[in-house]
Prior knowledge:
Strand content: under 5%
Distance between the termini: 21 Å
Largest sheet: none
Number of strands: 0
Low-confidence stretches: none
Amino acid sequence: MLMAFWEVQRLTREINYLERQAMETRNRLSNYQKYASVLGGSSIMTLGNIAGLSAELLPRASMFAQFSNQASSMSAMQNLQSMKMTGQVPWTGNALAQYQVEMSAFAKFKEESMKALKQQEVQILNEKEKEIQLEMNEIEQRLKMKRAYLESVKQQAAEDARNSAPKFGLG
Length: 171
């Protein structure tokens, strides 16, 4: 009977540990989903967009914001230069109007490049979310098994207690 008591205690500790692990895993999954929604919702990544992310994802998000801004600007500049060299940007004859045409094209190219970079990042995040979900499923399966085993041990302990109780000649 004492062994069953210790087994119940051990299983309860293991279940508590797994429940804490499950909660932490759910939080990680939620953080990745939040970051993916930030990427999908804004056109430009800024520190304001990513300020509410977890400590786990904040470095990644800030590096992505910096990288994506630089890479999309370089890509836009290359596309604009290419268009100018091939004569696809017409000369307006007015310096201000020319500047506005070029900046409009630059902004469009930068937005397209940023969108492509974000899609790549979201794909990476989706893969990580799948990994975390698999981890979550494994934890939940282990929890289910431990809880079922705990119930069987409790039932066995109750039965052992009934069988070992003195009957005082009544039974």
